[in-house]
From TrEMBL:
It comes from Sipha flava (yellow sugarcane aphid). Residues 1-124 form the Reverse transcriptase domain. This is Retrovirus-related Pol polyprotein from type-2 retrotransposable element R2DM. InterPro entries: DNA/RNA_pol_sf (IPR043502), Rev_trsase/Diguanyl_cyclase (IPR043128), RT_dom (IPR000477). Pfam families: RVT_1. One of its GO terms (biological process) is DNA biosynthetic process. Transmembrane segments: none annotated.
Amino acid sequence: MSEDFPVETDLRQGDALSPILYKIALESVVKKMQDDSIGLKIGEQNVVTAAYADDIIIIDETEDQVRNTANKLIEEGKSIGLNINEDKTKYLIVSQRQHHQNSISVGDMTFEKVHYFKYLGVDVNEKANSHEEINRIIIAGNKCYFSLVTLFK
């Protein structure tokens, strides 16, 4: 161990080291959230978060559980010197029922509700409907194929 020291440089957007460094920094935070939260049961496992570099999704069944898990993320992140960007943080409720609340408050932060978002290139929507995403991927595949088809002849 060593004494604390200031970090005076940062990584550029898309830097190959970003996922590795965030994994090292956030591993303990995500682990703590997994241990203390209920999450969503998928198969035999409870899933609370999905994380890649600094992109984290909190997965819970109720708004209160999301609020509690987000609060843990904020607290644990602060304990290692990381802060949540309130402007970039959004929330989505996946449900067939209508939800009218437009924002959620966690501590002194307020997060905006969205109807869909893109995570690691995949569109996620509030109806848990994958038809649009499948069609988008098929169209992208067709565009790629037909742009190269003349090379195959």
